[in-house]
Amino acid sequence: MESFRSLTVTQRDQILVEQQVFDIFKTFYNLPPSSQSFMLELQRENHVEYLTKGLTGLGPSFCVLDANRPWICYWILHSIALLDEFVDPELENNTIDFLSRCQSFLGSWLHINLVLPVGADGAQAHCALANYGPNGGYAGGPGQASKILDMIIVKLLPTVFCMLTMPHLATTYAAVNSLVTLGGDKALSSINREKLYMFLRQMKDASGGFRMHDGGEIDVRACYTAISVASLLNILDDELVQNVGNYILSCQTYEGGISGEPGSEAHGGYTFCGLATMILINEVDRLDLSSLTDWVVFRQGVEGGFQGRTNKLVDGCYSFWQGGIFALLKRLNSTKEVKPIPLGDGEGSGEESPQTTTSSDAAGEEGLNGDLSLGGSHSEIGDQHNTSSQDNVIDIDHNHSKGHANVEPLFNSLALQQYILLCSQELNGGLRDKPGKSRDHYHTCYCLSGLSVCQRSWLEDEDSPPLPRAVLDDIDKSMDALLKSQKSKRNRPSSISIPKLPDWNECLVQRGRKQLVKQAGLCRRWNTVQPFCSMEQMLNTDC
What is the mean pLDDT of residues 137-164? Predict the structure, then answer.
């Protein structure tokens, strides 16, 4: 007990989390096979019920997320798509209407409707309002504006407050992806591509990065949301891409991961965003992929899940933010020559984890078997954006894959599935950060996304289903790893070769139904594809 008190807060918290996870695994290990199978079952119906309920109404405790309402839509809709389910037409229409009211049209609306109604002072207010802030993009909710705009409106125009919004890149990303996930004429035509393009241009900074909002912070997250939305809507051009790669490079740290801004600490979410951005702009070879791989490999801890940063606790959401990095690395463009990645002899943060050797250990829970994946064509969607020539739009070359290479994943996918299904899943629906935490839509979305990455990480071809038995068979090894967590060091190979693989953001159609619907220049595919190449990666494949 005395030795426990002498530890740092971080060390004490880590020991407590490991003990909680160990207790869950120990309980599982002592159950009969039938009960073990139930605990490893993905509770699809309960998850869908929990998610659908979130679209119909939320309790007062969610007021803290008032500025993130498009994100709530995205987390829920993406999770439902991962589970191969749909929302009913009425709920879909309500969602589209709500997101449309989050879309900013500040300058143009005021210019049309405010015709000097209050004398000279009103004329000044009209000019200030009509030119205030960016026009385009999506805000955190209907009527959400900046404090400066609030003060003007409260004094002069309180009746029109609900018509004004201050757009933000993060909520723009969430809203656009939500609408594209829903698909259909109404959803897609509601996106004003011309004004959204102008908003992205206004957020572009001289450093090469992007600002999250007018006068806001510049970081890697802003780069990813801006570039991915532009890529998805086929409005990505040279002006948006200019110097973005330089900014991302300035954020890669000595550890190998990518930080939010230059000089900060490497972080799983920012590393995913930075790597995905570099792939989208065709500059991924500029990154130090060797050190990046080295860093992310050792973010998987003894619990089986991932931590977001060095010396931090495991968190279910990093099942995707870190797990998705491996998916991107594995699917790097096959036309690029990638040399073997030496990993050196340094020590990792985790301990010895279970090793697998054959592709027959491909793991997954059959419940998670579907996804919405999109292929954006180069045809028009809605309004034209204001560029000098359509030829300026970047056309990313995509090579269609014939299947997966027979290469084992660079992370322990079985151990991660065990953590998600046993420690993050709540049997009555929803997923959580870690044992002792409450479920929420954010962790539900990214735990399911990470689970999907795991299930596809061992596939040799497009028709190979996941094998849930592998999760059961591997539990003994996880128990051994936990028991040795404070006693042994993780062994790592001297090098890992990144194979020549098909383009990371190509739509691969798996078994099951396939429905191709062309609407307003976008292609919509409902099938059983890799969820990691759906909404988190913007597809530009010609259909």
Answer: 58
Task: Confirm whether 84 is a catalytic residue.
Answer: no
SS3 425: strand
pLDDT in tens, 37-65: 889 999 999 999 999 999 998 888 888 88
Task: Give the whole-angstrom CA distance, residue 328 versus residue 171.
Answer: 24
First vs last C-alpha separation in the chain: 64
**Which tokens go with 390?**
């359509």
DSSP category for residue 302? T
315 is catalytic: yes
Phi, psi dihedral angles at 445 (to 5 degrees) = -60, -50
Q: Which of 195, 443, 456, 525 is catalytic?
A: 443
Q: Is residue 353's pLDDT more than 90?
A: no
Look at the block and give the residue holding tokens 């890149």. 169
- Catalytic status, residue 400: no
Among the listed residues 433, 445, 507, 524, the single catalytic one is 433
pTM for the structure as a whole: 0.71
What band does 134 get if pLDDT is binned at 50, 70 and 90? low
Say whether 516 sits in a helix, a strand or coil.
Answer: strand
- 88 catalytic residue (yes or no): no
> Is 74 designated active site?
no
Q: Annotated catalytic, 443? A: yes
Distances (CA, A) of 257 to 275, 461, 482: 9, 30, 26
Q: What are the structure tokens assigned to 344, written together? A: 């050196």
